[in-house]
Structure formats: structure tokens, C-alpha cells
Amino acid sequence: MSRILLGVAGGIAAYKAAELLRRLKESGHEVTVVPTEAALKFVGAATWAALSGNPVTTQVFDDPASVPHVRLGRQADLVVVAPATADLLARAAAGRADDLLTNCLLTATCPVLYAPAMHTEMWRHPATQANVATLRQRGAIVVDPASGRLTGADSGPGRLPEAAELAAIAQVLLDRPELAAPASARDLAGLRVLISAGGTREPIDPVRFIGNASSGLMGYALARAAVLRGAKVQLVAANVELPDPAAAAVSVVGTTAELQEQMLKYAAEADIIVMSAAPADFRPETAAGQKIKKTSAEQELDLHLVQNPDILLRLVTERTDPDQVIVGFAAETAPDPEQLIELGRAKLARKGCDLLVLNAVGGGRVFGRSDSEIRLLVADTDSGADDAPDDGAASQPHAVAGSKDLLAHHIWDAAGKIRSRR
């Protein structure tokens, strides 16, 4: 069980922190809430105490015998500040210690995650951006806010990311605290990444389609991880029913043809492309313009299917930047790991991508689940993979299991290593 200190600053988004607290508690973490005085104007201390099961105070002089301003920061495995207002970011960057929360921020030796939420003008102000840069320089993780509806009729960047997204990031930092180290944090800064997610659907008629079970969870986890590590993210989503990842640009598509059009549109400008979507391999040669009616119990329906374009292969063959890294996915069914890897190697050679993420599917695995197990197959020894043999094909890659958010960082680790060696 990890100990999380949840700091809550005084913004209207404070009410969303209650949902974040619930998710952290349901994941088995011990959570202590430290609000600011202004935060209690939005959500009262009784709410935080009831949801966390721990006492709540804003002052360093409450229970001085336990020295809370030192003890809470030292004991925490992770500090999350959500929402982090412009005022809180300014005080943290300046090293102020004028309430219990800012004292805890100065004594914490664990990773610190800030989730800003404020009006667009406040977020974009040079002072706020300078404070964010200062905190990141010191090793703090500051996520970019989402774009959307703010208070009143205003809309724009400055919205607090969804609680599920923040909880996922918090768990990753607990599992991999080194991601908050200054040497590795935001290691994708300055890179443009293109990610596909979800599964395409090919219409039979206006109400029926051929599709697959892909939920888009892996692609969205990849987008969250890339944003967290500083990349500029373009996400192409096919039939995904998930909230847009904060700070990622999202294009929505339905069919394989639409997915290919959008991927080719952005491919030339991308430094890394991850083709995690599951395009339908076949589509009906023609789609009916009206709903196909069942007219009798004996009626049969014959569909003539034609092959869809191979998007991954086209991305590879039309690549013009030799430094561009292309990552493919393979969902395979195999009776044992050896045959699974053989299938993955065959696809890696056939597609010509730089890295292949191999999944064993079926039996309720992978699709629609928050966790998975992957194997990473690297195309050549220049990638620096520890398991790449002399013949240039990846050898027996070990399986890595965990949440899709955690696995996303393993994928970015591998893709970043490949790019750094070019």
C-alpha cells in the first residue's frame, strides 16, 4: 500500500479531486488530503475526511506535536496536487511555506505531480509558464491541462484532466518513480508523435458493420504517456468511447480508409509513429444504402469481402525521414510463447517497421482490459535492444505485464532508444 498526499488548491475544479480521491482509495492507496484554505471554500473538510478516512487540516499549527509539515511530506510515496491553481504553482515555484500544503511540498522527497486547472489566460500567462518551467526543471511532473469547458461560458486549455487519467498517471509514477527524475522526465520534449487507436468499422448497411474488439485503451495510454514525457501528440481514434487525453490533438475516424487518410496526412511531420489501432482487414465490396431487411426465416445473406489497404506497410514504404521511428502492433493467437514470437517475427519482417509490440489475444485477454502483457520485438541491432542477436532479428523477448499505462512507457522507452541511436 502506497501513501499518497493529495493537495487540493482553491479552484472550482476542486470538486473533481473528490473523484480522484475515491479512485486512489479504491486502488488500495492510503491517502491524506491537504487542502488550502481557499480549497475549503469549494469542498469542505468533512468531505475530504470522510472520503479519505484521515483527519484534514490546512495549518502547520494543528497537532504540532506530530510536526505534520515535515512528517506528511517525508512519509509520502507520491504527492499529487489537483487542482494546482496559478497561485499554488507560483508559491511552489518560489519555495513559499505559508500553509501546510506548501510546507509539505518543500519536505517531500518523493515524486510530485501537479495537475493545473485555471482559466486559459492564466495558464498561458508568461508568469505561470515560467513557474511551470521552474517546477519541471526541479524534477516535478506538471501535466498540461485539458481543453474544454471552463467556468461560465468560457472554453479552452485550462481544464483539469479527468480523474481516471490523473489516477492512471499517479499509479505509473508509483510503479516507475524514476520517470520523475530530471534526467528522464520529458525525454520526448520537442518530438512529434502520431498514434492510432481503436478499431475500424466497415459498413454493411447504415446500421450494421464489420469490426473488431479493439477498445482504444492502449492507444490512449500511449498518448497520455507521450504527453507526460513532453511530446506533441496527434491521436487518430477509430470508434473509441473514451475521454480525449489531455493536451493531445484528436482526429476521429470510422473506417480503415478514413484511418489511412488521417495517418498519411500527419505522417510526414511525425518523429515517431505508433500504429496501435486495429484496422479491419476486409470490408464489404459494396455497402447497402438502406437497411437490409430480413424477409423470411430461410433467407441467407452473402457478403463479398475485399481486402483493406495495409496502413502500417504503407507508412513504412512511404517514409521519407530516415530518423523516423515506426512502431507496429500484432495481436496473435498461438498455443505457446515460441509460436507467438515466430508469428511476431514474421509480421515484423513483412511490415518492415522498427519495433513490433506483440500481444497474445483471445480468452478475454487484451481487448477492453486495463492490463495486458506484451513482448517487444526490435527490427535491428542498431536499436540497442539487449536481446537483439547478430542476425538482426529480435531474439527471445521477455514478456512485460502490467497496466496499459505502464506498458505504454515501456514502449516509449524502446522507441526512444531506437531514435537516439539513429
From TrEMBL:
Binds 1 FMN per subunit. Residues 3-162 form the Flavoprotein domain. Pathway: Cofactor biosynthesis; coenzyme A biosynthesis; CoA from (R)-pantothenate: step 2/5; Cofactor biosynthesis; coenzyme A biosynthesis; CoA from (R)-pantothenate: step 3/5. Its cofactor is FMN; Mg(2+). GO terms for cellular component: phosphopantothenoylcysteine decarboxylase complex. It catalyses: N-[(R)-4-phosphopantothenoyl]-L-cysteine + H(+) = (R)-4'-phosphopantetheine + CO2; (R)-4'-phosphopantothenate + L-cysteine + CTP = N-[(R)-4-phosphopantothenoyl]-L-cysteine + CMP + diphosphate + H(+). It holds the Pfam family Flavoprotein. GO terms for molecular function: FMN binding; metal ion binding; phosphopantothenate--cysteine ligase activity; phosphopantothenoylcysteine decarboxylase activity. Residues 1-192 are annotated as: Phosphopantothenoylcysteine decarboxylase. Residues 188-381 form the DNA/pantothenate metabolism flavoprotein C-terminal domain. This is Coenzyme A biosynthesis bifunctional protein CoaBC. It comes from Microlunatus endophyticus. The gene is coaBC.
